[in-house]
Amino acid sequence: MQLIENTIYGDWQRSCLFNSGMKQQNGYGTLLTNSRFEAFLWTQFLGAFNDNVYKMIVSIMAVRVAGAATGSRYLALAGAVFVIPFLLFAGYAGQLADRFSKTRVLQITKSLEIVAMLMGIVALRSGRIDLLLIVLFLLATQANFFSPAKYGILPEMVSEADLSRANGLLELTTFVAIVIGTSFGTFLFERWEHDPARMGLTLLGIAVAGSLFSLHIQKVPAASAVAGVRDRFRLNPFSEVVTGAKEILRHRTLLLCVLGNAWFWFVGALFQLALLLAGKEVWHVSETHVGYLITALAAGIGLGSVAAGTISGRHIELGLAPAGCFLMGVGGVMLGLTSSYTQALGWLALLGFAGGLFAVPLNAWMQEKSPAQERGRILATNSFISMLGVIAASGTLSLLHDVLHWNAGNILLAAGVAMVAVSCLIVALMPFETFRFMMRCLVTLLFRVELEGAEHIPEAGGALLVANHVSYVDALLVGLSTPRTARFMMRRLFYDMPMGRHVFRLLRAIPVEETTPRAITLALREANQQLANGDLLAIFPEGHITLDGEMQDFKRGYERMVRDLSVPIIPIGISGLYGHPFSCKGGDAFRSWDKVWRPRVAVRVGPPIRELVPPEELRRAVESLTGERS
Predict the structure, then answer these.
(1) Residues 460 and 588 reside in one and the same domain
(2) Less Cβ crowding at N or C end of the chain, within 10 Å?
């Protein structure tokens, strides 16, 4: 049997430039025309916007009222006040998100924002810093209860095909709210410094608008009711976090996503704090220009989040994580080395963009793969750990800058180097996802592929993919037609090649020793067992690549693979590659450039065949999908 390998999965309809009948059914346009999802975006946008407007007003008032020396202490205290609720009440927030409808949780917590803003009017009029900080604490508490429901409701509102894009829009609107809210807070204070009641009423109006939008969010049932499980409410919030941590530890990929998300928050907080110092120590600019630096970082994260959703397409692409982390490292290193303010803006935008690529697939994976009845608990635990990362960033900055007396530029440089090192660690921990994404990028670079009928491949359970063999890259094309991990059969001769042995083992290929009939029988039995276990297998029944462009007779080995099993056989037709240098005909790269550089290739998946058919009939089914006749 000819070499078959599964390399990657992905949504070629979008990120690999596939043109399929499903292409028009999914995308950002579809999400943005969904009024229920729009209401959700506006709800969380106005909440994040209001938080940052109020936080900026409190920061300015702290400096104005208390003076520069004492005001800096209040600024640090304000940062702590905003983090503490995420540590104290994360367990409660997770329990509420699991026990009740996440829609109701979002609506009730938004109404609490109105109460906080009513108190905010009193605090603003009094001008007392302690009252302002109390209201800030209430807003942070409201945000803490809002967060697990906000992220947990996404997989209940949208399908997995739209989950990455939904997260991209969520992160984009969040960081846009942060940027605009920070600027608007400054504007509001300067305009109505002597009329705090107007500032308070403006914030109250924003809270009311967000609460009204929340009433139009799609209604979802309580996760505990769907699962038929209702745990007792735990008064100790930390026990809930411990339980969530134990659940996360049982799932390796989930653990890596949580740790990756904590690293993202640690690095983001460290950069934000270090930029405040670097503005004066390295680039010698005003506070306004430092604000532009933070804006560039936040804008980059927002755009990177949208790009991550586009690249991921209909499925969650974890392979973006190491690529994003590496680019963050490059941006951090260059930021630490530059003395130009203009260049710093560009490197910060790159760093933020890469951060969006890094964070979106991690969040989407946690939402999709965490058990539905425990999703709130796991997301709350994730928030708790992420806030520990934020606190660790403050401690790290204090250690490096105040104790070791590092220059802010050196801190940025060290953070960039650390991110490059972490990206290498991620590759070591997630080799399959990284390799799959690299191959996906390679195929996108080489071909323009039209994928049709991918919905015929089952999302779970055993199935046998059967394709014609035109070129040496057919395995990539077949592997990319499904988000599942397919296993392929290959000759032992190729399996044991020094350059490919580790890759083939990583892809769980099934080696076939063709020297004796008994060895072939054992390989077919193993394939039968893998299908019985619910795996996805793929073969080229011709046994070798076509030499003349004509489809060869199918061998009968597939019959023994599916014997006594009720698994479907999925025919796949590949066309458009004969004459390419990767085919046996080859091609002249200078005379047939249009056939070499990104030629159009069709991959068509036919309806499943539910019964065992003879080789001739199966061959005709595959042939009908190629658009060619022998």
Answers:
(1) yes
(2) C
Q: Give a yes or no: residue 33 inside a domain.
A: yes
The 3-state secondary structure of 55-71 reads HHHHHHHHHHHHCHHHH
Tokens of 610: 């539910």
**What are the pLDDT digits (tens) for 105-118?**
999 999 999 999 99
DSSP annotation string for 531-547: HHTT-EEEE-TTSS--S
77 three-class SS: helix
453 phi-psi bin (left φ>0, alpha ψ -120 to 50, beta other): left
Please say whether the beta carbons of 131 and 116 come within 8 A.
Answer: no
Domain end residue (candidates: 373, 399, 432): 432
pLDDT at position 9, please?
A: 33
Q: Is the pLDDT of residue 130 over 70?
A: yes
**pLDDT-derived band of residue 412, with 50, 70 and 90 as boundaries?**
very high
Q: What is the residue range of 325's domain?
A: 251-432
Distance CA 298, CA 165 (A): 18
Helices (H) and strands (E) in the chain, counts: 25, 7
Domain count, the chain: 3
DSSP category for residue 373: G
In this structure, are 513 and 425 located in the same domain?
A: no
Q: Is the pLDDT of residue 22 over 50?
A: no
Torsion angle, CA of 461/5/15/321, rounded to 10 degrees? 90
Question: Over the stretch 455-512, which tens digit does the pLDDT of each residue have?
Answer: 899 988 999 999 999 988 898 888 888 878 788 887 787 788 877 777 888 878 888 8
Nearest residue to 119 via CA among 105, 134, 130: 134
Place of tokens 């276990």: 533
| Number of neighbours of residue 456 by Cβ within 10 angstroms | 18
Count Cβ atoms within 10 A of the Cβ of residue 489 and give its class: 0-12 exposed, 13-18 middle, 19 or more buried: buried
Residue 405 pLDDT more than 80?
yes
Backbone angles phi and psi of 53, in degrees to 5: -60, -50
Reference 170, options 43, 11, 13; nearest CA is 43
**Residue 41 one-letter amino acid:** L
Angle, helix 68-88 to helix 35-66, in steps of 10 degrees: 140
Please tell me whether residue 566 adopts helix, strand or coil conformation: coil
Residue found under tokens 């009908």: 624
Residue showing tokens 């998300």: 261
Residue 190 exposed, middle or buried by CB count within 10 Å (0-12, 13-18, 19+): exposed
Strand ordering across the sheet containing 486-491: 448-452, 600-605, 569-575, 463-467, 536-539, 486-491, 510-512
Is residue 264 helix, strand or coil? helix
